[in-house]
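Annex B. Sample input.
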Amino acid sequence: MKITDIKTYTFDAFRTNWTFIKVETDEAGLYGWGEASLGTREMALEGCVNDLKRMVLGRDATEIEKFMFEVYRDSYWKGGPVMMSAMSGIEIALWDIAGKSLGVPVHRLFGGKIRDRVKMYANAWFVGAREPEEFAAAAVKVKAIGVKAIKWDPFGKAHMTLTRSEMDHAVAIVGSVREAVGPDMELIIECHGRFNHFTAVEASRELAPFKPMWMEEPTVPDSSDSLRWVRDHSQVPIAAGERYYGKYMWQEALRKEAMDIGQPDMFHNGGFLETKKVAAMCEACHVPVSIHNPSGPISNAAVLQLAATTPNFLIHEMMLTDGSFRRFITNENVKYEDGCLLIGDAPGLGIEVNLEEVLKRPYQPRILRHYTGTLTDIRPKGDTYYYFDGLDCSKPVY
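Annex B, continued. Sample output.
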C-alpha cells in the first residue's frame, strides 16, 4: 500500500485556522486524515507539508516508524514547530489509514484500551467574559451541564509582569469563579507563557487559596531553567509542554524536573508515536500527562485514541463551545457522560471530513491574541456558539 498524494486544507475557524491533512493511497477508497493546525504559521506549515511530500510519496503507508525516523534524519533543519507539525499531521493520517485497513481503532494498534473514558476539562466556556461576574455566570452554566473541570486565562493583556491592579483583577476573576462553582470543580489557570520568574511565583501565591489544579505554562517556553525555578517556588502545581517539539526537548525538561504535569501537543510533538514515547518518558519520572488539545475535531479524535492506551494520562482538554461551523465540517460525535468523554471503537480515528463544508471557510489571517486582551472574543458576527455534541446542542450557548 503506497502513498500517492498528500493534501492540505487550511480553513477559517474564527479564533485561528485549522489545517487538516489528507494522505491518499493506491488502495481504492483508503485514505487517512490528520490535523496539524499551527495558528499564525499556516502558510509555512502548508509549504513544509509540500516539501516533505517529495520525501513521502511512493512510501509504504504502513511503515510509520520508518517514515518518522528517516524524514527526521534526512532533514538538515530539524525540529521546531513548523517541521514537527507537518510531520505530525502526516503521521496521524497514516495511523488513521492503518486502523481503517485493519478494521480496528487506532488504540488497538498501541496496545489496546487501559480505559474506555477520560475525565474532561473544558476550555472555551467563557466566550465574551471580561469581568469577574461574567466569568462566574459562565462557570455556573457549565457546572449545570455536569462539567467538573474548567480552564481559562484570567490575565488580560499581561506580559512578563503584572501591575497591582492587574493582579487584583485576575485574582477577583478566579475568586468569583471559585465562589460560584463551589469547592468540587477543578480550576485550571492558563498563563500562555506570559511571565518572568517573579511574577509567575507571585501569581501562584495569590491564587493558591482557590486551590487550582495547576498553573499552565507560567513562563516563556524557551527556558526549562526558568520553568524549573518557578516550579521550585510555586504554591500550586505547574503544567507545561505544549510548545515542546519532540522527545529531545522533553528529555531536557524532564531531566531538570521542570514540571508537575506534562502537556505534549501531539500534532506539534510528532504525532502518535512521538507523543506515546514522550508519555512513557513522563511515566518513568512519575509525571502525569494531559495532552494539549485546543483545536479541531481531528485533533480531539486522535487525542482520545492515545489517551485510551496511556497509563499516566490525567485529564482531557476539550473546547466546550465552538462556532456552528464545527457541527458540519466532520461527523464528530463526542460522547459525554458524568464529566468524562467516552473513547470510540470505530476503525482508524473514527472521523470523516466534509470537504464541501471545509471549503466554504477559506483561510483568514489571524493575529496571536494572548497579549492583546482579545483572547475572550465574542462569537463570530452572525454566528452562534454551541456546546459540543454529547451535551445539549439544540440550544445556542451564546
